[in-house]
């Protein structure tokens, strides 16, 4: 049997005792050794401790210096490079989300000018920005993509992805069953198109947001709180804290760098021999 008392249990005990005895023996020998040996041991210990302390201090100093640069390090590691990264850069700040179920903020109001203005203020309808030629490759733009004529400063017209995501979320909001009639009747923005196109625009937006949320999946958790003191019930705490990127800096940069409102007809450089031209919308 495995649990046989005599063999399995007693033999480790015996060897354990033996080990202890050996250690005691070693201690005794050390204690009886000459004072020089003890002094040497003490000096070596002191040296070791000092070295460790020094390493720790150097590490701590490096750590403190790195902390300041951690934001750009993380931003550069997790986001596509763009001119924004070079000119402004990513910073992170802790924000409390508002996960209220019944208390509505302006972004949640029923269709109308007030809620539209709130969404508009996020920069969802900004015109393209210019990505200078020297940033194009690092920003993921191929040399044969659409370019601005050198006459007008050159570079590539482009839109900030995050603002497109918000544009998309706004279109989903406008297409909610209780908002749809209002925006359909107004016939502005995406609703100038046929219903068939609007439908595809909406599902394009839904799917872009799905992919973005999956790409940056939040691995934080929602805890629970007690509500109703008279007969307490558990309720999910949606008001969680998040480390957020500097959205306002992104919006401000995109606003400032918009291309002209009424560009001249030769603003874009026409494609040249060898540039890829697709047969249909990809
Ligand atoms: C969330 O927003 C609503 C509406 O602005 C406000 O009444 C509520 O206090 C906010 N909740 C939190 C936890 O910030």
Automatic annotation (TrEMBL):
Pfam families: UstYa. It comes from the Eukaryota. Keywords: Membrane, Transmembrane, Transmembrane helix. One of its GO terms (biological process) is mycotoxin biosynthetic process. The keyword Lipid metabolism does not apply. The chain crosses the membrane at residues 42-64. Signal peptide: none annotated. Belongs to the ustYa family. This is Tat pathway signal sequence. It comes from Penicillium olsonii.
